[in-house]
Design a protein that fits this description.
The chain has 358 residues and is mainly α. It has one domain: Ammonium transporter fold (Orthogonal Bundle). The chain is built from 17 helices and no strands. Helix 3 packs parallel to helix 5 and helix 12 runs parallel beside helix 15. The radius of gyration is 23 Å and the shape is globular.
């Protein structure tokens, strides 16, 4: 008679419930990003919808290509490339040319993820790597903004969306030929950060909360982003201390600048709600791979990003600094972890020094 076999599965504590798999976590992040994408399409029309689709196809195609080249297993079903695509598309201007969006998607996956060895090995946030590349390669397109809620946005593309590679869109080219800079300025919508930095005009906080402003496709509604982030916090799929540290440090830095520099500096409320700070704090800086693991390190990491963001905004040549602040935080995460390791229980400083220097 055949003997029955008993299989014992050993797992680390805690044993109350199994840890969620990578694909479950990633899928829930996609769920949280969908309302932001839907609002971006409602706000800017079919140009943003086309941009999201093109960037998504570019990221998925690049992921599949590098899987084939490295003879590795299929990673398209872990949703990491989908998250990279959605975040990248949401950080781009609504009228960003589609071919440039495809380039950004290729760089985000190829340079920001596959080059480091794939999911779990990337040092920097892949979406921000793609965004940083197109900011350097296409500085005019990346800083061309479109007013929100244009009439006909669901039936007509923004002219720059369908621009051919290395060519100006026909309507903008026509404006340049006629020398009508006033008409071009009337089409391009200034962001709240640009209005405040260059013209000293502040935007109503309620408009920043509800998304009644111009900006990158997914950064305009701080309130909606907070709600979507709260979903991830409730499901325990996001480290809540990171966005709290970023928002608090940015607000404190803005308050200090206004305290010493006067009303020339923006209010903490404006700093927190404007630009891509909320999108970056909630969905990008919280990347598990690029953020520290130690409790103290998490607060230092978030504080660094918040302070650097405000410094770039106020004293740099750019109106926005979230992207570079998060990339700097990603690069600093290993060092922060090494400097904030908790003390091992039952050891003394003298004993540790003796082990390190026998």
């Amino acid at each position: 008679m055949a003997k029955s076999k008993t299989i014992i599965e050993l797992r680390s504590s805690p044993h109350l419930r199994p840890a969620p798999s990578v694909d479950i976590i990633m899928r829930n992040v996609v769920y949280a990003l969908l309302p932001v994408c839907i609002f971006a399409v409602y706000q800017f029309g079919i140009s943003v919808l086309a941009l999201i689709v093109v960037v998504l196809l570019s990221c998925l195609g690049t992921e599949h290509l590098f899987n084939r080249l490295s003879s590795s297993s299929n990673t398209l079903n872990d949703y990491s490339a989908v998250i990279t695509a959605l975040l990248l598309a949401l950080t781009l201007p609504p009228g960003f040319p589609l071919w440039m969006g495809a380039v950004a998607g290729f760089v985000a996956i190829g340079l920001g993820k596959a080059l480091f060895g794939g999911l779990g090995f990337n040092v920097l946030n892949p979406a921000l790597v793609g965004r940083a590349f197109v900011q350097a390669a296409f500085p005019v397109a990346i800083t061309s903004w479109t007013p929100a809620f244009l009439p006909g946005r669901f039936t007509e593309f923004i002219p720059s969306t369908l621009a051919l590679p290395f060519m100006l869109p026909p309507s903008v080219e026509h404006l340049y030929q006629k020398g009508s800079q006033a008409a071009l300025d009337g089409f391009t919508g200034a962001t709240p950060l640009a209005l405040q930095k260059f013209e000293g005009i502040s935007t109503n906080p309620l408009d920043l909360l509800t998304g009644m402003v111009s900006g990158s496709a997914g950064e305009t509604s701080a309130g909606l982003i907070l709600i979507c982030g709260l979903y991830l916090v409730v499901r325990r799929f996001m480290e809540w201390r990171i966005p709290v540290a970023i928002i608090a440090s940015a607000a404190l830095t803005a308050w200090l600048l206004q305290w010493f520099g006067g009303p020339a500096y923006p209010t903490p409320m404006f700093v927190v709600l404007s630009g891509g700070l909320m999108l970056g704090a909630v969905f990008m800086a919280t990347d598990m791979v690029g953020s520290p693991l130690t409790p103290r390190g998490i607060w230092i990491y978030g504080g660094l990003i918040g302070v650097v963001t405000v410094m770039i905004r106020q004293f740099g040549g750019l109106t926005e600094g979230v992207m570079y602040a998060i990339l700097l935080g990603n690069a600093s995460a290993p060092l922060i972890d090494s400097l904030t390791q908790p003390k091992a229980f039952g050891t003394s400083q003298a004993l540790r020094n003796k082990k390190e220097h026998p």
